[in-house]
Amino acid sequence: MPKTRFTREFQDEAVRLVLTSGRSQRAIADDLGVNRSTLARWMAEHQDTRPSSATPPNEDVMDELKRLRRENEVLRQERDILKKATAFFQGGKSMRFTFIDAAKAEFPIQRLCQVLEVSQSGYFAWRSRPACQRQRDDLVLLAHVRSAFRESKGTYGSPRMTRELQDQGLPIGRRRTARLMRENGLKARQKRRFKRTTDSHHAFPVAPNLIEQDFSADRPNQKWNADISYVWTSEGWLYLAVVLDLFARRVVGWAVSERLHKELALEALRKALAIRRPGEGLIHHSDRGSQYCAAAYQTELKKHGIQISMSGKGNCYDNAVVETFFKTLKSELVWRTVFQTRAEAREAIGRYIDGFYNSVRRHSTLHYVSPVQFERLAG
Length: 379
Prior knowledge:
The chain has helices at about 10-20, 25-30, 35-50, 60-85, 95-105, 110-115, 120-130, 135-150, 160-165, 175-185, 260-275, 290-295, 295-305, 320-330, 340-355, 370-379, and strands spanning about 225-235, 235-245, 250-255, 285, 305-310.
């Protein structure tokens, strides 16, 4: 059988397929009908005849490449250091040294000092010095701050936190508290806007506004404030009615229901009456919602000799205290929780009102004491 002769073009095409197709030489040889040893010889000839540009770069090119890589690594480190150390620039050198000490396992100390604009000798001198008394005190105070922040469910800012620590007998001021919270990322949750649900389109009579935005009270059971809000669950809406005593901003009656009807507000009122048993002179203030203007609700108030007061038309400020309570409830509990059932939401609201808001939470309007403590001090 005569020996097959392959043109140069055919050989080059076979080599190109090996180099670019990603397939094995064996598979390409079978496809082209050539011996594998022949294809291997063509590949060897191709290697021998490659242009000189494919030879390794000279030393100057390699040195330049290494230099560029080093510079790129330095820039990457500086970028990452700046990202993590932004908050530490607001403090003094001690704060920067603290960051360097925490980040030295991740970045070279020389680079950290360079980016943070401090000297290496200064850092090593700081590290070798024993902690001063103020630094040791900060560690103790920070432990108390973290504990109080957790107990407040992340809701206390520096004013309430300062009062909480001071009442524990700890010597701390507002600025020091704010600094410790800021440096350790303890930021109180911000409130959102509140959406009203008042239905004032009804034919019931409306009472005059007796308190005229005067929410002060000299004693318990002098002024009550009532309103209704809502909480979303996976089962649907859960409506919440509350009655607050304006003297200590204490929730004296509350009720929940899956439907928004007049019995909801009436149940909260009856609970407040049963617990407080108010005497003469109590003013009950609410908005113009149909639940509060209903005949059954008005009859219950009159039966106990309670004066009736209602907000002006479309004026949300006339009912500001109870609306503030709902904003606080939602920012501190509802907006940070996903309730699967209404029963779950009902239980959580009960724990918040009776176990935290009334008995533990510090109120700025009460000079940072809880409603229960305020009533005890005033009594």
